[in-house]
Known about the structure:
This protein is an alpha+beta fold. The chain has 15 helices and 11 strands. The strands form 3 sheets. The chain has a 4-stranded antiparallel sheet with strand order 4-3-6-5, with helices on both faces. Strands 8-7-10-9 form a 4-stranded antiparallel sheet, covered by helices on one side. Strands 2-1-11 form a 3-stranded antiparallel sheet.
Amino acid sequence: xxxxxxxxxxxxxxxxxxxxxxxxxxxxxxxxxxxxxxxxxxxxxxxxxxxxxxxxxxxxxxxxxxxxxxxxxxxxxxxxxxxxxxxxxxxxxxxxxxxxxxxxxxxxxxxxxxxxxxxxxxxxxxxxxxxxxxxxxxxxxxxxxxxxxxxxxxxxxxxxxxxxxxxxxxxxxxxxxxxxxxxxxxxxxxxxxxxxxxxxxxxxxxxxxxxxxxxxxxxxxxxxxxxxxxxxxxxxxxxxxxxxxxxxxxxxxxxxxxxxxxxxxxxxxxxxxxxxxxxxxxxxxxxxxxxxxxxxxxxxxxxxxxxxxxxxxxxxxxxxxxxxxxxxxxxxxxxxxxxxxxxxxxxxxxxxxxxxxxxxxxxxxxxxxxxxxxxxxxxxxxxxxxxxxxxxxxxxxxxxxxxxxxxxxxxxxxxxxxxxxxxxxx
Length: 426
């Protein structure tokens, strides 16, 4: 439950207030009469043009997007969808008399400040500096908290994680030990039949451009993404390469860390992903390993470079451990040669580290230029810190949270189907 609640709390710092030039789906709104019009009816509640304009400012201000009429036109259907969902969630929480208290909202704001490494009180300073509509921000926080409480109270007691499920999860992890996995953030834009102005392709292309210019990925995911990870800023956690859909797997494998993908088109909608980190399952970061090294160094005193390379390659063929390497090269190499001892990979120069990281124990490297000399290195021993299997308590919590999130998505889908939704802005 805590993970779900935090996710909702964090989606709330996304509000600003201004009334200039926000377009509807097909028209510009530039007078007071337009602002008072109804944009959508959701059961017994309405969303006004004014509400929609305020939320649009919210999104642009906190996502670090470059404002333009074209951007607003493209984003409006996505903003509308989010506001409709919030209305439905608040209506359900009121029906069940599950209402967040003022203290819970205050705690959510404090949690938000702490999560963003900001000092207490920074939220109100942010609102004031950006001239934001604080009431709109609080309403968004309230909706997220209300829905988290509803889902938790409805389903938490029914979630039971058996010991056999934990055993199976541990077995799967051990079986996958050493396989590649990725830490991924995602934005998912569905092809939405409800919003007839279906511009997911245009929105995706624009967002990719903005993200590559520095727009806030997490804020955009919270506002627009329709995946389960939206409440957590698009963070889907560590995922095995083989667990990703084929289209995403190919792209994640080839992406550099921190880069933004092109829009990835699927049958359901469009994905935008960013790979935050890569590693191998239950395997320590290889750059944190310690190695024992030996080296041989040759300079002009030992013949021309052709002869030096020939000699080093002969050593590579004959020596399969450091003791033999040093024995075979004794008296034939520079005094800089010898055993270098135990060294952390992180303490090595980057060019040496790259060679050593991919070098098997007992194999002499290819000759490397070093000023006026040639150097070759052998790894005598390598020490990796193996990551232990996560403890059972964490695994149990992870399974329970995923199940709770799944139930919440199904619950929301059913409520949406039962709701009367009339979108008047076209």
